[in-house]
Amino acid sequence: MSTAIPLETTLPTVNARIYPKGGLDVLSHNEVARLRDVSTGMHDLLRRCALAVLTSGSASDDPRAARELYPEFDIEVHQQDRGMRIDLHNAPAMAFVDGEIIRGVAELLFAVVRDLAYTAMDLGPDSPRDLDTTDGITDAVFGLLRNARILHPTDPNLVVCWGGHSISRDEYVYTKQVGYELGLRGLDICTGCGPGAMKGPMKGATIAHAKQRRFKTRYIGITEPGIIAAESPNPIVNHLVIMPDIEKRLEAFVRMGHGIIVFPGGVGTAEEILYLLGILLREENANLPFPLIFTGPASAAPYFEQIDKFIRLTLGDDATKRYEIIVGDPDQVAKRMSAGIRKVREHRIAQKDSFFFNWSIDIPLTFQRPFVPTHEAMAVLDLHHGRKPHELAADLRRAFSGIVAGNVKEDGMRRIEEFGPFEIHGDADMMQSLDALLRAFVEQRRMKIAGEYKPCYRVVA
Amino acid sequence: MSTAIPLETTLPTVNARIYPKGGLDVLSHNEVARLRDVSTGMHDLLRRCALAVLTSGSASDDPRAARELYPEFDIEVHQQDRGMRIDLHNAPAMAFVDGEIIRGVAELLFAVVRDLAYTAMDLGPDSPRDLDTTDGITDAVFGLLRNARILHPTDPNLVVCWGGHSISRDEYVYTKQVGYELGLRGLDICTGCGPGAMKGPMKGATIAHAKQRRFKTRYIGITEPGIIAAESPNPIVNHLVIMPDIEKRLEAFVRMGHGIIVFPGGVGTAEEILYLLGILLREENANLPFPLIFTGPASAAPYFEQIDKFIRLTLGDDATKRYEIIVGDPDQVAKRMSAGIRKVREHRIAQKDSFFFNWSIDIPLTFQRPFVPTHEAMAVLDLHHGRKPHELAADLRRAFSGIVAGNVKEDGMRRIEEFGPFEIHGDADMMQSLDALLRAFVEQRRMKIAGEYKPCYRVVA
Amino acid sequence: MSTAIPLETTLPTVNARIYPKGGLDVLSHNEVARLRDVSTGMHDLLRRCALAVLTSGSASDDPRAARELYPEFDIEVHQQDRGMRIDLHNAPAMAFVDGEIIRGVAELLFAVVRDLAYTAMDLGPDSPRDLDTTDGITDAVFGLLRNARILHPTDPNLVVCWGGHSISRDEYVYTKQVGYELGLRGLDICTGCGPGAMKGPMKGATIAHAKQRRFKTRYIGITEPGIIAAESPNPIVNHLVIMPDIEKRLEAFVRMGHGIIVFPGGVGTAEEILYLLGILLREENANLPFPLIFTGPASAAPYFEQIDKFIRLTLGDDATKRYEIIVGDPDQVAKRMSAGIRKVREHRIAQKDSFFFNWSIDIPLTFQRPFVPTHEAMAVLDLHHGRKPHELAADLRRAFSGIVAGNVKEDGMRRIEEFGPFEIHGDADMMQSLDALLRAFVEQRRMKIAGEYKPCYRVVA
Amino acid sequence: MSTAIPLETTLPTVNARIYPKGGLDVLSHNEVARLRDVSTGMHDLLRRCALAVLTSGSASDDPRAARELYPEFDIEVHQQDRGMRIDLHNAPAMAFVDGEIIRGVAELLFAVVRDLAYTAMDLGPDSPRDLDTTDGITDAVFGLLRNARILHPTDPNLVVCWGGHSISRDEYVYTKQVGYELGLRGLDICTGCGPGAMKGPMKGATIAHAKQRRFKTRYIGITEPGIIAAESPNPIVNHLVIMPDIEKRLEAFVRMGHGIIVFPGGVGTAEEILYLLGILLREENANLPFPLIFTGPASAAPYFEQIDKFIRLTLGDDATKRYEIIVGDPDQVAKRMSAGIRKVREHRIAQKDSFFFNWSIDIPLTFQRPFVPTHEAMAVLDLHHGRKPHELAADLRRAFSGIVAGNVKEDGMRRIEEFGPFEIHGDADMMQSLDALLRAFVEQRRMKIAGEYKPCYRVVA
């Protein structure tokens, strides 16, 4: 599958040629040309995503770190007799074992190529799609997921796990235990595909699936180009999808997952919670079953109390009906999730909705439109009481999304370096609560930042 | 897989619900809506193609016959929990065994739905593709074949078999023997997917593949909406593709096949021969290996002499270097084809061309552009000596294509009924030879026409 | 899988080394040694059976013909890194395609080795088994079939087809049609694995299974060393079992098959009918469902009338309740068989009997004990009215068995050459009827004997 | 697969019916009868082994504990339509998830039934085998392993891991890391199938195999009735084999494994080391490559020093050439093992020995004959300098074997309770060293004994 020649550089690297196995990924001449195009930035994007895949497991979440460590890294896609070939130059040796690339890493590389090729042809500037309507965006999400071959008509069993990439040892072990209990019950796992709470459930489920002799397992990682460098997919992930932006990534989670478990996390997790609650609180979704469980080890109880309080304050007490908090009981989490998914199954059958894509859930355009966190956009967020819960949730989601960008995404970090922290305006109590929440994340070291954390935002009551 | 309720009509019919197995075919809401759209003619097209699949094996090649026999037949595509569901109303009972649809027929139905949905979205009036350039058309052919999941990076082994749907018992047995010898050598079969020479090789190969324990076999049928009714796919076909028109169908044969065998046939076969020779005679393809064998039982020797003479007269003696005539020797046919494909393999590796799609072969726009055989278009064909062989071949191909349409395609038959026979103009010797060839086809009963054959053309020297 | 070097001899032969695929057949040092043992006759037996497999499709049914045509043929079994290796010396070229052995033939060779090794160790002279009791013999049959890996817990669907190896073209086509109809209904085929009625149903079922996309098909051939040379297995057979003698072969048919179809045949077929009816007529089996259909094309109607008459005369009219005669209606044969097998299924579930081995059917020792057709043994058969039907059937079975041996088995032929025809004694009407039946077989050319048939028996009233 | 009804007892239990999947395990009437036979002790043996499988993961290694906890537990094997059915009565609820048995546990139960049935028929008192010769015993080991379907002709890749069931957290994590590095290199794992060092490598390999997309993995557990209760197999084990006694179990390890890794352990591990070195030190095995690595985390360095010293003292310095000690370097362990196995592969090819069973290694009868550790047998062990190393090793092995029995096997424990500790005689220095080693095992808590350890032996210089 690969032949590798070790090179001598500061960090060990290898050159390698990689061929796909099974040959499902077949590209046209056009698509290969597009991926090689330097002028459009496509080649650079490919290089960055590939590097993230190849440095899975490294400690930093600074997206620029990998590139500084492997400055000579390059990737080329070629057409060949049996289809595609990937040439790697000065690639991180950590992705190889005795000169052979880890098979799972190779698969992720081919997934990167597949998704970027599709995005370039189908969702790029000359896309035939209408990406300004709700239907058009949902159809694009569907198209990309179908092209990634992860829409299977199996019984509902996909549990999305959200949570931090930087969590305590105690919390990490807990996520493994929950994954184990889910796996024993035949449930598959979908996460944002980085370390921490995104990896633990997959590891636990792997052991449980082995014991249950489940071989057609799905460990799905859904990411986007802005986040992949900070949260590089670990190779247990056997289905990687790169959505074009965070909003489509969130929609993919919600339309594919049959239930969601939230582990302790940081700002990104908060963004995800707000996104989901904002949608579930819409009247149109009032009767839609959607199991949602917040859980962590006993030590995480205060964390969820604070989150719960924040939700009550901003979205109202009614919002809490949409989730359940379970502390320190992996078995119970899995039981409740199983039961919830059974209801989802019944509902889909009754509604003639598909098992593999939740067409019924209503996601309005305000949650779908890409939010670009400029200082202007952050400043005009409308964080005041009196708005409809789902509208306020949409803006709160954007606020957290901007802070994630300021913390770990390249564009965002550049903006903060240039113009200083974002200003976020809103009602005093909401701003205080928001600030408290964010400070707690820092104290609990839920951001894997080198050195002392310098906030990228400033709240203004 | 299906539940069926027998109905009482003149010809026995059943109602049935059919579900796909394996669930590879996943449609979006948009696509299902498109297929159900009566206003665009899409629903009617779906109904006609489905009926062709369901009446495989019937005797007539009048495309309207099936519809007259099953006037109440209808089909509906639904979205459901596990994906797609097809509802059949008053469907021909011949596709069922004890009330259960034959599994292969069901697969072909799902292939029809898949290809028509793709064509509607991707190659229809609002297509994002440029279908006026060589590259654009080739990319469309590639896209449709990839979507049909038949571009596999296996070793070259696909033999295209052309020949008549109406052949003698002797010739039919011979096509089975050739298919058997090909199958013993691990070769797969691709045809136009009707009866006669399109079915025999697949049957022979099926027995040989069973003896060789080949399980991943490919019996590919490539058709188009205009011809499917006359040449309905038999269910040994395990990969059916419906190309949007005859020109893309021919391009699909030529880009996917690693070699071509021509059995005795009628006008359609002549069209195919002219198409292929026209392309192979181009200077750009001079060095391209492409095994091409004309073969039949001893009784078919005179047939191939006449074809050979016609080719020499029209395209010149050089054209005969591109093919080999083997009479009455299936073993030898298979050996020569195997040897030829080994050369194709070496050439692809040397040229870094893919095994599964012949990007290198040069097919000019004149062979790609859809030819609509109106009386005007037929009348202006330029069939004179002195033209470049491949240009003359292109017009000869169109002449045959027009006659096929006049014989068995709905549109063409309507035109002939309304305006009388086509007039074909050309040099006297060429016109005589053409007429003699066509008359021989009639005498040899190579057209499965009810009653006496009334020619749909008139040659004018 | 094999590398072959063509040699020059009178009939073309090759030398080859063959390796198993999948590696299920693993032999011990002891077993390999036993197979190579010349002193015990085991090596000779192996050579004869292997030659039969390699000459499948040849015209003669003289067991000695193949050995005269390939006098230098030899086979050796070796132990090697990945397990077994078979070396063939001067093997018939007809089993190879372009120097490669036909994969199905190779599989049959490994089956021969597997079964002879098992028989040598487990059923040979130092066998630990008690082969003198009903239970002991049945257990041995079970052990050999299990070792051959054909006892699968699938739903009952195995139809045993009996009938002649030498039948008319018309009858052969009919057996293919019946096989096709059985195959469309998901039924598998088991025969004695020679040509004629033993091959046609498998060929028909192969095409039908392809159309129904059945991939885990079973074409089981059950033979024994005495008959394999005369009825060499065709390579569609994907499960070959060599039972040690004719009685265990018959028991294997009856315990594995869920229903039996009898096509026109000769003496061997008559033996099979008598064996089965003898068993089914026992009181112990009175309530056991066992679908049994005699069928052939319209032209075979007189044949079955004669058989029917013979049965009524010898076993009484009641015996006819155990079978159904269907003439010229393959569809109806398949429907009736399907319905019969559904009843078998219900009965097994009710009786807690296994689907894959009919433990319930009572087969008395008189049908199990090997019958050696010496002149003495043949002379003392007691063919008189007044005996219990199943006892008379047992002796009639032996009579036919002896005639088969005299016709086509090496030992039997030798005896006839030495001592003249067998004498068979019995009541006058029975003897006349028997003789008429046997003469009809000869007239209808149901014995593939070279030259004029010289009867190996003489009836004495 | 199972339907379960929870019962109320002290420890939670369930009743369940279990059906095999895939149906490879097909029993004869005789075999089922044998397994149900109470008179021969077979039923009791089945019950004990089944209970061990069902209580995998429990804390105690007292073989009698499980039976006291589940006094009402019973198991019945039934014959049924699709083959076998297992009925469990009052089975430990810990083997079930939400009332469904863990699939891996069910597979282990069927393995228990399969092996006990085979042993009863083939190795029992009326066995046809000669179990008093080296060849006879080796053939029996081969027969049982083949019947368990684990002799596959794949490339050599099976690493046997020995080590304690009771090890420190630090050591356990290390065994997982070694397993991970082995798994990354495509190596499979075989252990004695209990907890600790027998489980860690499998867990690590499971994660690595998932990353390398290896699906046909082998986690082989080889046990015997005397030890299974103390070291119950964890359900990651996907191939369980129950050998009839410790000597055949050791022979199975040595003939199947392509290399052996020894982690820190207790008396049992010492027995295994002595067994293996005794064999490898024979002149007949001098040229046989057999990679053998002793390894543990840094904290285990003193442990291996002590072992090393004991080996030098008893077997001489030459014995140390047969193994390599690697401390705290999992990557290096895996690399060295990979390299060693490559040499094994070359040697087998050169010697025409099979990959899956090491026929070449010479194991003398003295290592094969079952040793029954009575007080008499222990007292006459000849532990003096001057004996040939492999003979001394054989007696030292027996000494350790006896102590294991006295510690954790039912028979042995009963003897100690009745007659007091074993007396072991030998040269003073050897006895001191032995005693020191055993005391160190106790101090390091390498025996999972409840309460204070009371030695079951007394050394006598």
UniProtKB/TrEMBL annotation, chains A, B, C, D:
What are the residue boundaries of the Pyrimidine/purine nucleotide 5'-monophosphate nucleosidase N-terminal domain, all occurrences included? 17-121
Q: Which Pfam families match?
A: DUF4478, Lysine_decarbox, PpnN_C
Show the catalytic activity.
Answer: AMP + H2O = D-ribose 5-phosphate + adenine
The superkingdom listed in its UniProt entry is Bacteria
The record's top EC class is hydrolase
Q: Which residues form the Pyrimidine/purine nucleotide 5'-monophosphate nucleosidase C-terminal domain?
A: 341-460
Q: Which InterPro entries match?
A: LOG_fam (IPR031100), LOG_family_nucleotidases (IPR052341), PpnN (IPR049788), PpnN-like_sf (IPR037153), PpnN_C (IPR021826), PpnN_N (IPR027820)
State the EC number(s): 3.2.2.4
Q: Which PANTHER family match?
A: CYTOKININ RIBOSIDE 5'-MONOPHOSPHATE PHOSPHORIBOHYDROLASE, PYRIMIDINE_PURINE NUCLEOTIDE 5'-MONOPHOSPHATE NUCLEOSIDASE
Q: What is this protein called?
A: AMP nucleosidase
Q: Which organism is it from?
A: Lysobacter auxotrophicus
